[in-house]
Design brief:
Oligomer: single chain
Largest sheet: none
Structural class: mainly alpha
Strand content: under 5%
Length: 118
């Protein structure tokens, strides 16, 4: 049941129960003295401890550093590969005549559209 669908009667009953629980806890604390404190409703779970010691983590880290040092040393020994540069592609250049032809066609198309609106 979600809190959205709860009726007013159920809400009142829940509030009464909560008040009774609080009163009973305070009565118990009064009987037992200050030792008995009200326990939290939802206690946090205990934090998980690491399964490995600090020395173990240090050994693993040292081994990882050694592996990386070997890899970097091997890379430094090998000569860098020279990749031949590809020749640049020649750009497509439109001729002046082609530009004029396209421009004239566009102007004619727009003239036709504008003349139809008037």
């Amino acid at each position: 049941m979600s809190l959205i669908n709860i009726t007013p009667a159920q809400l009142r009953k829940a509030a009464d129960l909560k008040e009774r629980i609080a009163k009973l806890q305070s009565d118990l604390a009064a009987i037992l003295g200050s030792e008995a404190k009200a326990a939290p409703v939802a206690a946090k779970p205990a934090a998980r401890k690491s399964g490995i010691s600090a020395a173990g983590r240090a050994r693993i880290a040292a081994a990882a550093r050694l592996r990386w040092a070997k890899i970097h040393a091997a890379q430094a020994k090998s000569a860098p590969k020279v990749v031949a540069a590809k020749p640049a592609k020649k750009k497509f250049v439109m001729s002046a005549a082609a530009k004029a032809k396209i421009s004239a066609a566009a102007k004619a198309r727009w003239a036709k559209i504008k003349s139809g609106k008037k």
